[in-house]
Amino acid sequence: MVKFAVGSRGVAKACGSLAWGNRSLVRLNVVDSLARCGDIMKSEGLNSVNWLNEVLADNHYPGRGVLWCRTGDGDTLGAYFLTGRSRASQARVLHRSPDGELVVAPSESRAHDDLRHYVAARQSGHWMVFGNGEQVATVADRLDSGQLPALALDGLDYEPDPPIFTPRLTVIADGRNGGPAWFGAARHSSGGRAATNRLTLQVNGLEAGEGVLMTTYRSDGNKIATGDPLAEVRIAAGDRSDLLEELWSSLPPQLRIAAAVFAPGGLVQADIRQAAPTQS
């Protein structure tokens, strides 16, 4: 298992005073906040961690993505988003089920597709599980049976969609105060090997303004490949509504499908943004 600690407390606190400020004052806009925090980071020599909007702006097709972060008000939140190019991919909605799950479903009458339609987030005891496919339900069931997170993420495989072989991305978040999160990625080898490469990453102690992002794809506008294993990112959002706006505005407008922000134990209160229905 890979473990790491992210960020710098000094810069997070300094940027926090700029991006989030006193609640009695008018909040600075995101662009102004990012510019000022960027100046601080340059002076501290900490430009190796980019802003969420920069990471996504540099990726012309991120596909689906998972984010675990802490906003300026101290809340630790998860986020999930979908983008798509084809008609079938764009004809989807992200909604809450009667059972309190977040579900990706077709937005029009069409057959169920295991790779496009799935439970995207489920609560399992004090664990919250979210990700980009049907493995979310599998992992939640394993946790319900008593398996620990690292074992619950084991044995997953990438999606059977050659030639790109989309990674399966899964996050298990501990809903207890200050609890860690585990990221799992089941990826195809960059060579010819068919066996699955499995990455399990434990993230602890996020400070305000810090996050970890995984996306299924990466594109320069011409070629599409599977995304980088992970990206540590900086978050400008002061609260959950700001986070949804920051995430949504960072995605390619012509490819956006849906995005959601949620807290462990709070999927029923998830904030969801949905693109307008595509026109036939």
What is this entry, summarized?
Helices cover 22% and strands 34% of the residues. With 280 residues, the protein is of the alpha+beta class.
How many domains would you count in the coordinates?
1
Determine the number of helices (DSSP H or I, runs of at least 4 residues). Answer: 7
The count of DSSP E runs of length 2 or more, i.e. the number of strands, is 17
- Rounded average pLDDT: 84
CATH hierarchy: architecture: 4-Layer Sandwich
Helix content: 10-25%
- The proportion of residues in beta strands is 25-35%
User: Regions with pLDDT < 50 over 5+ consecutive residues?
Assistant: 1-38, 40-46
Question: If you compute it from the alpha carbons, what radius of gyration comes out, rounded to the nearest whole angstrom?
Answer: 18 Å
Structural class designation: alpha+beta
Q: Give the termini separation.
A: 47 Å
Please summarize the sheet with the most strands: 8 strands, mixed
CATH class bucket: Alpha Beta
The fourth-level CATH homologous superfamily is: Inosine monophosphate cyclohydrolase-like
CATH structural fold name: Glutamine Phosphoribosylpyrophosphate, subunit 1, domain 1
SSE string: EHHEHEEHEEEEHHEEEEEEEHEE
Q: What's the arrangement of strands in the largest beta sheet?
A: 1-11-10-9-8-7-6-5
Q: Please tell me what the overall shape is.
A: globular
Q: What can you tell me about this protein's structure?
A:
- This protein is 22% helix and 34% strand.
- With 280 residues, the protein is of the alpha+beta class.
- The protein has a single domain, classed as Glutamine Phosphoribosylpyrophosphate, subunit 1, domain 1.
- Strands 1-11-10-9-8-7-6-5 form an eight-stranded mixed sheet.
- A hairpin with a 7-residue loop joins strand 10 and strand 11.
- Helix 1 runs antiparallel to helix 2.
- It is globular.
